[in-house]
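Write out the bound-state structure for zinc ion.
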Amino acid sequence: MLREKSAILAWSALLALLIVGAFGCSRERAPRQPSLVLVTLDTVRADHLGCYGDRDAVTPSLDRLAKEGLRFANVSSAVPLTLPSHTSLLTGLLPPHHGLRNNGAGALRPGTATLATLLAGAGYRTGAFIGAFVLDHRFGLKTGFEVYDDEIERDPKAGNVLEAERPGREVVDRALAWLEKDDGRPFFLWVHLYDAHAPYTPPPAWAARHPGRPYDGEISEVDEQVGRILEALRRRGLDGKTAVAVVADHGEGLGEHGELTHGLLLYEPTLHVPLLLRAPWAVKPRVVETPVSLVDLAPTLAGLLGRPFPGPLDGRDLSRALRSGGEPAPGELYAETRYPATFGWTPLSALRRRDLKYISASRPELYDLRRDPREGTDLLQGPSSSAPEARGFAARLAAIEASAVATAPPLAADAETRAKLASLGYIAGGPGSAGGPASGPSGEAAKGRPIDPKAMVDLFQRFERANERLTSGDARAAVSELEALVAADPANPVFRGKLGAAWREQGAPLKALPFYRQAADAAPRDPEAWYNLASALQEAGRPDEARQAIERALQLDAGRPEAHNTLGIIELGQGNLEQARREFTAATAIDPRDAAAFNNLGNVLREEHKLDDAANAYQRSAALAPRYAEPLNGLGTLEVERDRPREALPLFESALALAPGYHEVRLNQAIAHDLAGDADAALSAYRDFLNRTAGDPKFSEQRRAAQQLLARLEGRIAGGAPAERR
Ligand SMILES: [Zn+2]
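---
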């Protein structure tokens, strides 16, 4: 009995153990929920990494990852532009089918499935950490992400906000902080590193390692940041249950085929990208040779995580072939760029089948990439005609284009989303090298006289250099180069717009006016064109015409914050403080991250003697754009008005450190010293201001004030009566 009892006890104990064991076992075996880390390296061409054969590269982290997983030897981007390519990469759709075909234009259609929506739906924690404004949440890739960290500081004075970026180091800092907040759910982390995008300014240590090759210095920096992510995974013991994919959105021309950067042409330097994939439970380390497309990535990653990607899709799920250790079946690889259409040139598309690659253009090309990886011998120009093959490619490309969805429609018109779309208008200076809005009616200029972009590479290079000069403050050189470009391609709307911008930058808005007028006449329904015209008219001192133009811009698109901002400046110029405040308030309500509008609002509030409200507005502006001198100057003037001149001095000091050419601050500084009773400092500050502004008509009024104040101070020092009474 006793034995029986103990046997029963033993049996039940065993049973309990078994149940526990079964639980334990089922936990082990339960559909695993591997996590996913996706790192996108902007503008990194494959052949500049060590693991892709560049012996001079310093890319140890990526090289190690390549050894630990799959290295895809032949991956092709579907489009050499950041926003369209990332959209393809996350949706598995080609640009004609997701609709985002240029940077800065449109938004992803609501309801489009992405890796993030798929994994969020499966209970994943999802976070995205973005390196550049070009992927701002307003363009729609935020869908499915619980956290979409795109807090990128914008320079309120920059011509092209699309180029605003932040260092990869900061992006990774924030991504790793998010990773630490583990809540037990599997996670999907996307990190976007923009550093390798032009301009190439690697940190000093990497610049020194790559003398004369700043692009490679940037790639080493990017590699270091990837290394930090991999190390964090290892330290947390996540290596075995986290898929890691590192991929570039497109490459970089670096002068090959005449292209310095990317977006204009469809040759391999900008299409051939690296792809490294580590998923230890599913794939053994090796090299995959079959050419595949970036659109294959999303369905393949989903397949490796055991979650089929919902269709219809352009990309293929390659996970079965990858798990089995075989090569995927070859597919056809499509690529396009509509960026040339912005310039009035023909857009391009390309199709690759095995080794043959066809590029559709006014003068189409056909290359055998195996024999001729540098695309130097166009088979359509050779003696043995490949014309029938070319016709097959052309027909297929035409069919793909015919299946294109309409350009992505604006987001739903509730106030917040409309506001986001509207703030696209920040692109005031016309598109830069990163790609601009598709404001030009694509292909329209090409209707009469098709212009093949590859015939325009010289002009395009000169344009890029002129743009660089303009950005670096050499407007005079930019003007003369752009005048030559306008003469060479008179119908090019971008050249004309940029010349207008260069004249404005040089302080000659009157000269900019004809170019902006032509642009507005050519595109009367383009709010951007009216906005540019209005800004130039306002600067040229023609407020009534400026008001007409800006009202036209607001009729076409009432939600443009920068149009409200400009209207506010016009109102202010005519002494209408209340209307000005209303416009600046509208601008900040539409885009709560518009540092310029907050600064302007601060100025009005100061004039209305609402000092606390003014201080709040300036502080918002300064927080949004820490490198912006104006709000610091504003805060300084508030201190002076509050009779605290000494508190103002460090603010003026900071403003000048940021903008040494902002001479108004020097006058304010002199006044603060004067009021604080520091005569010597005030004297030298007044004189400094007068010396620096000598002969500049822009400062004539302020110079008069400074001269009076200086004379009065000198009089006081001499112990006599104030100078003006003598
Ligand atoms: Zn990019």
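---
Confidence is low (pLDDT under 50) at residues 1-31, 409-447, 721-726.
The two ends are 126 Å apart (CA to CA).
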